[in-house]
Amino acid sequence: MPPYKYHLFVCTNRRPEGHPKGCCSEKGSEAIREFFKEEIKRLGLRSHVRANIAGCLDTCQFGPSVVVYPEAVWYRVSSVEDAKEILECHIQRGQIVERLRMPRP
């Protein structure tokens, strides 16, 4: 059995200034990943949840981008409040946060 039940991949990609898609780092993704890590620890979830840095997920126009595996649910996470909701609803209760889901092409 894998050591983690959930992996949260947080895009921390940096694109050149002025790029049409922007980049998740400029939109605060590094602080969001740090919040995920701190909350996971505070909530006692470290044994089965991990927040990982991800390179470009090619969705920076929606960003900051976060993908939750194993379900492969793609979220746009604009604030630590959004991140907290994902932890409370998706990770702890198994309920996808529809309002934060990334639009499908």
CATH topology: Glutaredoxin
Proportion of residues in β-strands: 15-25%
Spans of at least 5 consecutive residues whose pLDDT stays below 50 are: none
- What is the H/E order? EHEEEH
Structural class: alpha+beta
Cα separation of the termini: 33 Å
Overall tally of domains: 1
Q: How much helicity do the residues have?
A: 25-40%
Average predicted local confidence, pLDDT: 91
Architecture (CATH level 2) name: 3-Layer(aba) Sandwich
Count the strands?
4
The major beta sheet can be summarized as: 4 strands, mixed
Shape: globular
The CATH first-level class comes to Alpha Beta
Query: What strand line-up does the widest sheet have?
Result: 2-1-3-4
Radius of gyration: 13 Å
CATH superfamily: Glutaredoxin
Helical run tally = 2
